[in-house]
Amino acid sequence: MCVGIPLRLLKISGKEAIGEINGVKKKIRIDFLPSSKVGDYVMTHAGFALDLIKEEEAKQIIEAINLVNSRN
Questions:
Q1: pLDDT of 17-36, one tens digit each?
Q2: What share of the chain in percent tops pLDDT 70?
Q3: DSSP string, 7-43
């Protein structure tokens, strides 16, 4: 099973970007999404952005992640 994490892009430099979820920043690669831009939400796995997603969808996923984390 693969787990994808939605991140909001904060900074892009070439094929690398900084994404953020819940205040946690992560360096990722955006090789597969050359048209991505700061402010976009991307689904990531293993350090790579794999797909652009809508803000509403990203927020729903983040809410679900937060709910699971609050139970642990």
A1: 999 999 999 999 999 999 99
A2: 99
A3: EEEEEEETTEEEEEETTEEEEEE-TT-TT--TT-EEE
**Element spanning 5, H or E:** strand 5-13
Q: Which amino acid is at 53?
A: I
Q: For the stretch 8-47, what's the b/e string if a residue is b when 16 or more beta carbons lie within 10 angstroms of its beta carbon?
A: bbeebeeeebbbebeeeeeebebeebeebeeebbbbbeee
pTM recorded for the entire structure? 0.90
**pLDDT at residue 28 in the model:** 98
| Integer Cα distance of 2 and 54 in angstroms | 20
Ramachandran area for residue 47 (φ above 0: left; ψ -120 to 50: alpha; else beta): left
